[in-house]
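User: Run a structure prediction on this.
Assistant: Running it now.
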Amino acid sequence: MARALSQIVTVIRGSIGGITFTANQWHQILLRAKTAPVQPQTSAQTWIKNAFALASEQWKSMSPADRQLWDEYAETVTYTGPLGDYTLPGRQSFMASLSFINYLNQSALDVIVPILLPPEISGRYNFGLIATGPLAAPGIGFFVSITNPPGETAVALLEPSPAFNPTRLRYKGPFLSSSAVASPLPADTSVLTNFTGLIDGKAYFVRIRGATSDTPHRITKESFLRVIATETVI
């Protein structure tokens, strides 16, 4: 890995030739050798590939008019990156939403009828309060509570991490697809998801993603939680 102090470039991301430009918590520009993606051939990887392939075919099946409406919707969803704010083209916005729904179906975590029509409501979808706490029944673990606002039915995908020492404060993956839970969220309700059988006093992280399920699919941003597993004795 190489490091450089540049007087003409302050932020750079992506790859040029065999070099990938990135950053970490200590340096704004890092250079490292470009690596090929890992292909572990797990069930989860197969589900993800199938979900993207199906979304690509679903995009091709839509009319030009609906594709144009997806372009218009995508312009209302702003993402923030190291180089500033940006929006996605309509096709990428469609792929993100439909591949998420397809993944839930492929992995049998939920059964959702895909809706290809573009959303009529602008912007990304947002959950309400997300909270954690100890289990209500005997066991070692924690719960995650997600409040869904009024108006639309949604689904949340919760993916836990392995156990870590409690000194660990952040974690961005990989998460355990084998322990993932899809939680249906009726409109204007709070739903608890319990994670049990954990190690008392260890730190766990949960990645949360979601989308509307009964209306044209708007996805949420990723949320990350850090929770200490505790034992409940009643």
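The chain is about 20% helix and 30% strand.
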